[in-house]
Amino acid sequence: MGARRASKDTDRRIGRRALIVGGAAAAAGSAVLARDELGRLWWRVPGVEKPRKEGEVDYAGARWVAASDANWRRADRPDDYGIDMVVVHVTQGSFDSAVKAFQDPAHKAASHYIVRKDGHIAQMIRELDVAYHAGNRDYNERSVGIEHAGFVDRPQDFTDEMYEASARLTARICARYDIPVDREHIIGHVEVPGTDHTDPGPHWDWDRYMRLVRAARTTPA
Ligand SMILES: [Zn+2]
C-alpha cells in the first residue's frame, strides 16, 4: 500500500510490457508513449489474455450492459494486477443515469457493477479489466468497484434489497480472490487516498453491510 510502492510496481510492470510491445513502440518512433497507451497495446500480443465472451458476466446474479471502453482499461486480472479490495460507491443519481454515464465515452469513469434499489445488478465492466472508479490508479488496478443507485443524503435510497444484493455480490468477489471480509479490504470511495468524493456517505450502514457480507460469505453460492 502507499504511493511509493505503487509507483515502483507500476514502473516494473511497464518495463515488462515495454519489452513485449517493443515492435509497436519502435514503429511509433522514439515518441514517448503514454503509460496508458502501452497498457492498451500490450494485450494485443497473443497468449497474454484469458478467453472472453461477449455478454459474459463474472457474477451469475448480474445482467451485462457494456460500459464505453473509454471508461476502463483492458487488463488480465488477477494475473497482471492482484485484486484485494472492493470499493463501495453511491451514484448521486438514478440507476438509469449511472448506466448512461458509464456508456458515455466522455464520462471518463465507470465501475464494474451498479446495484439498483430493487436488488437488480448490472455488470458493465469485466473484473479482468481495470475500471476507472476510484480516482486513484493503484486502487483502480487492485479493486472491484460497486455503485449503488441513490444519493448519499437520502438514507431511504439504501433499501434492504440493495444491501442484501450488494452484500452477496461482495461476498462472491471476496471468495473468488481470497479477499478478507473486513473494513481494510471493503472500503468506501471516501477512504481512497487523494479522493474528494464522500460516497457512500454517513447514511451507509457499514455494520449492517459487513454483517450481511460475512453471512453471505459462509453461505454456499
Ligand atoms: Zn464513488
Describe it.
- The protein contains 7 helices and 8 strands.
- By secondary structure, it is α/β, with parallel strands linked by helices.
- It folds into 2 domains: 40 residues; 156 residues, Lysozyme-like.
- The strands form 2 sheets. A 6-stranded mixed sheet has the order 1-5-4-7-3-8, sandwiched between helices. Strands 2-6 form a two-stranded antiparallel ribbon.
- Helix 6 crosses helix 7.
- The two termini are 31 Å apart.
- Bound molecules: zinc ion.
Strand and helix layout:
Elements: H1 3-20, H2 22-27, H3 35-42, E1 62-64, E2 72-73, E3 85-90, H4 95-103, E4 113-115, E5 121-123, E6 130-131, H5 137-142, E7 143-148, H6 160-177, E8 186-188, H7 206-217
The site of zinc ion has 4 residues, from loops.
Q: How confident overall, as mean pLDDT?
A: 84
Amino- and carboxy-terminal Cα gap: 31 Å
Which CATH architecture of the largest domain? Answer: 3-Layer(aba) Sandwich
Coarse structural class? alpha/beta
Round the Cα radius of gyration to an integer and report it: 18 Å
> What's the helix-strand series?
HHHEEEHEEEHEHEH
- The count of β-strands is 8
State the domain count. 2
- CATH class designation of the largest domain: Alpha Beta
Estimated helix fraction: 25-40%
The distinct ligands, each listed once, are: zinc ion
Report strand order across the widest sheet: 1-5-4-7-3-8
Q: Regions with pLDDT < 50 over 5+ consecutive residues?
A: 1-33, 42-47
- Helix segment count? 7
If you consult CATH, what is the topology of the largest domain? Lysozyme-like
Question: What is the CATH homologous superfamily assignment of the largest domain?
Answer: Peptidoglycan recognition protein-like
Large-scale geometry: globular
Largest beta-sheet characterization: 6 strands, mixed
EC number: 3.5.1.28
Catalytic activity: Hydrolyzes the link between N-acetylmuramoyl residues and L-amino acid residues in certain cell-wall glycopeptides
Pfam families: Amidase_2
Organism: Streptomyces chartreusis NRRL 3882
